[in-house]
Amino acid sequence: MKNVVIIGSGLSGLSCAYYLKKNGINTAIYDQSNQIGGRIFSENIDGFICDNGFQILLNNYQEVKKILDYKDLNMNYFESGATIYTDSQMYKVYNPIFHPIKSLKSDFNKIFSYSDYLNVLKTLFINNDMSTKQYFKRSFSKSANRLFFEPFFKGVFLDDNLENDFIFFKKLFIKFAFGKAGLPKNGMYELVKQIKEKSKILNINFNMKLKNISNNIAFFQNGEKVSFDYIILALPIETINVLFNLNLKIDYNTNSTFYIKSEKNVLGKALLLVPDKKYKINSIQCLSNVSSNYSNNNKSLYSVSSNDHNAKKETIIKEFTKITKIQQSEMQLIKSYRIKKALHKNIYKIDRKDNIYFCGDWQKEPSIDGALKSGRLTAEKIINICKT
Ligand SMILES: Cc1cc2nc3c(=O)[nH]c(=O)nc-3n(C[C@H](O)[C@H](O)[C@H](O)COP(=O)(O)OP(=O)(O)OC[C@H]3O[C@@H](n4cnc5c(N)ncnc54)[C@H](O)[C@@H]3O)c2cc1C
Questions:
Q1: All domains of the chain, ordered by start, with CATH?
Q2: Measured in angstroms, how far is the CA atom of residue 10 from the centroid of ligand 1?
Q3: Which residue's CA lies nearest to atom 21 of ligand 1?
């Protein structure tokens, strides 16, 4: 039996371990942290579930379907559509695919023109090499862009400049249009727990920061050494960049998420978009309205997202009050996450080096599905080698 070692226990490393185990290959996992899951974790604070940044799970992620059971995650879904706050006014739009009647009665026609309807349909059938921003500018009306497409996808890509390519936009656009965005009842960390359970990974080693690799031995910062036949580095691209002196230029989209509790329940189950550029807030959502388990004390839990990881707490609170009309005396900030390296802007292709293999969302796309896919594809390579 070959000795296979995985470094990194984010979704890509766990997915790799899952497929290897399914094919009879046991692995040992090592991570620098003291828990598995990497960028996905949830904390329980004062009876509220706070995820590491506002993250959602779509119900039509193909790779998720291959490993996880949505039913066992007890998914709770956002209302498909959005509320939009602009110039002190609220607009409401519903996704016509899920809410055809409601969408007719909503503010759809104040935001979208007939040519927008046609161009939405056209988007499903075309390809091009434009950036998302360029595509929006060329295809949709000013109000559709300003009030819906731009703020919505700025929140998805965590990028105010919408620089990512059309292909990634189109993929997510189709997923959002025909699927539902939701949260596992008990928080995003349920994903991680379920993969761990399903893959029956027993050999997980924490506080093991990989320092370097030489002659089939992995050296860790704490002085420990581990030998291997094959090693899979399920690590962030910047760690690989340093380990192998690749000199890659890596840029990230950033995020800050603020969790606020209040007795007041003012938003429904929809995402509230804040399109005006003078605001730091990009979106607000009442998580406890989507899944009541996000709060176990009858108070409402709001998550407030900004694409500026340095956004000032005072500014966010002030804007939150202005938008929701919840006064500062009626709320309390319970946690903020400032994530400087939330999503990498580019995709990187790095070939295996002898018996060193790689996986991570940076190989495919910066998403849960991208991370799971890269883990699966890397596992398949090892499985093929072990068979021969
Ligand atoms: C704020 C935010 C919002 C997001 N929103 C969404 C969303 O709504 N939907 C969606 O699909 N995706 C979303 N994502 C993306 C998704 O979370 C990631 O794509 C995915 O979790 C990445 O998994 P990974 O295994 O590739 O990397 P990571 O999760 O980064 O895993 C890497 C692992 O390597 C370990 N490690 C690093 N260096 C070392 C070392 N030297 N030695 C040992 N271990 C090391 C780390 O501790 C970590 O466990 C979001 C991400 C963020 C941050």
A1: 4-41+188-249+346-387 (3.50.50.60), 42-78+182-186+252-344 (3.90.660.20)
A2: 6
A3: 39
pLDDT of 364 over the 90 cut: yes
pLDDT digits (tens, 9 = 90+) for 86-119: 988 999 999 989 998 988 888 988 999 999 999 9
Distance 39 CA to ligand 1 centre (A): 3
Q: Which residues are bridge partners to 183 per DSSP?
A: 76
Mean residue pLDDT across the chain: 96
Q: What is the pLDDT of residues 258-268, one digit of tens each?
A: 999 999 999 99
For ligand 1, residues with CB inside 6 Å are 7-13, 30-33, 38-40, 53, 55-56, 209-210, 234-236, 239, 255, 339, 342-343, 360-361, 366-368, 370-371
Q: For residue 255, give the ligand 1 atom closest to its CA.
A: 1
Which residues, 6 or more positions from 164, have their beta carbon under 8 angstroms from its beta carbon?
131, 132, 157, 345
Beta bridge partners, 91, equal 84
Q: What pLDDT does residue 1 have?
A: 82
Helices (H), the chain: 11-22, 62-67, 100-105, 108-111, 114-123, 132-139, 142-144, 150-157, 166-178, 189-199, 237-243, 287-290, 313-324, 368-387
Q: What is the pLDDT of residue 351?
A: 84
| φ, ψ of residue 47 in degrees (nearest 5) | 85, 10
Q: Which atom of ligand 1 is nearest the CA belonging to 220?
A: 42
